[in-house]
Amino acid sequence: MFLKNALVTLLTATTLASPPLAIAATDTSSLATAQVTMVPQYTLAWPHALGPVDIFVSRTASKEGMTLVQQHNDSSAARVISPFPGQRRVYFFIKPVDGKPGQWVANRILPLDGVANFRDMGGYETADHHHVRWGEFYRSAAPGGLTSADYALVDTLGIKSVTDLRTQAEQQKQPTHWQVSGQEKPPAFYPSEKPVLPGDMTDKSRLAKMDQTQAKALMEAFYAKMPDYYAPELKALFARLVAHQTPTLTHCTAGKDRTGFASALILYALGVPEQTILSDYAMSGDLLRAHMTPSFKAAMNDPKNGGAMAASPAMSALLNSDPAYLEAAFASIRKQYGSINAYLAKALDVGPTQIKALRDAYLD
């Protein structure tokens, strides 16, 4: 969105700070959670209703190759040392000893230095009590800043497809040169061919003069345009998901708006409740702020970037991932199509057959 045009220079010209590990996913209380304390130590928590549990760890979210690390824990929380110290991404299986269904869990936010807002969309509970599989859907800001150390982790994710929702100008400004490392081949890239963003989103001096209310209204107007404007890219994305071109990464520049909308639709198609989707969407603002450095703030005050953006009342609205923005997109869909399911079917070719295929493939 216009945030990208106002901030693409800022995000690409500044060094990102590592995100604080204290930022956690906005999960519901019915889900288990995991946070990296300090690799290889993790802090786990799970609903008390699960009762005593056994805790397993695995290199993948698969019961094959699981290792038991704690037995009959009835405290609803644990600190666990991974038996795979060289593995920067591990998955835990919380298994109730009384036979209740277990839950896979991993740290949602990947600890990367060069890219903000890189996270796993797995683990969320659906309305019919299944869970989105971990390690299938990733979302992030533009990955062009990935460091060699970052690739040591990202390369283990096995990403097969990358959907880039940036404009052509954004892609040219910060191209992605994917390092293959140990992979046999790089993922397939699917860049948007959009030359510009919809609407009047490029006047930086105008943005700097906006108040917060005006900026929020402009944000909501942009979101209302997204469903139709990005329908071709989203239709192609869902076709790849149905064809199992996963694990997949979806990104734009900040990983907040275009990526947030696409990610919301994926979760919706999988049956995740709308309130959970809004909570997941709302994480981006905090994650982007966690990467703000002094050089980032200096860039916002640079005249060539519009000047005085750091002090602009509009800046908080631009950086926010206010659920009202995503709700504006949903409202636009419902006004035009009647329901989100109807939009998925009519605009994106994701009807009942495709919905079933997606849920069969990507839910536990």
Automatic annotation (TrEMBL):
InterPro entries: Prot-tyrosine_phosphatase-like, Tyr/Ser_Pase_IphP-type. It holds the Pfam family Y_phosphatase3. One of its GO terms (molecular function) is phosphoprotein phosphatase activity. Residues 1-24 form the signal peptide. Keywords: Signal. Gene3D superfamilies: Protein tyrosine phosphatase superfamily (3.90.190.10). It comes from the Bacteria. Belongs to the protein-tyrosine phosphatase family. This is Protein tyrosine/serine phosphatase. It comes from Asaia bogorensis NBRC 16594.
